[in-house]
Amino acid sequence: MDINWRAVLYGLLTSIVIGILSGLAVPYTDLSLPVVGASLTGLIAGAVAGYYNNRSTTSDATHGALATVIGALVIAVILTVVGTLLAGIFGLGLGLGLLVLVVVAGIPGAVGGIIGGYLHRGREDTVGRPAT
User: Fold this and answer.
1) Please, which pLDDT band fits residue 109 given cuts at 50, 70 and 90?
2) What DSSP state is assigned to residue 129?
3) Distance between CA atoms of residues 2 and 103, nearest Å
4) Stretch (H or E) spanning 26
5) Which end of the chain is least crowded, N or C, by CB within 10 Å?
6) For position 54, what pLDDT does the model report?
7) Rounded distance, CA 102 to CA 65, Å?
């Protein structure tokens, strides 16, 4: 499978922007409901990657998951560095806990990739059509 790195980059940038802005706009929501923030970010970033990829359902899901996981890794590193600088060892512990969310972020990213591919409507899946 060829990876469309442009689609992954668009999803990655979306994931980073939403991850940083959501933490600035609604403080402490990641501490109370971290899965909701990661899931929503994953769905949106995955949908962007799937929309720009627009090849097949499997490819869209792969690109959405890839973009979301890479974006979650970048956000986890940024938050770990900032948390360690501000809170010392406590910030480092929270940052390492974010790595668990990185793994979980791939699932909504894959679902978002499928949704984004179907929203594009630039292709038709040929699965199940009889050959004439």
Assistant:
1) confident
2) P
3) 22
4) none
5) C
6) 85
7) 10
Give me the residue label for tokens 């959405």: 64
**Residue burial 31-42, b: 16+ Cβ < 10 Å; e: rest:** eeeeeebbbebb
Q: Sign of torsion, CA 125 12 5 52?
A: positive
Place of tokens 């402490």: 28
CA distance linking residue 36 with residue 104, whole number of Å = 11
Residues 89, 62: contact at Cβ < 8 Å?
no
Helices marked H in the chain — which ranges? 5-25, 29-32, 34-53, 57-87, 89-120
Q: How many angstroms separate the CA atoms of 43 and 20, rounded?
A: 16
C-alpha Rg value of the chain to the nearest Å: 16
* Higher per-residue pLDDT: 37 or 45: 45
Instruction: Report the distance separating Cα 124 and Cα 101, nearest Å.
Output: 34
Q: Locate tokens 């403080």: which residue?
A: 27
Q: Which two tokens stand for residue 123?
A: 């292709």
CA atoms in the 13 A half-sphere facing the CB of 125: 11
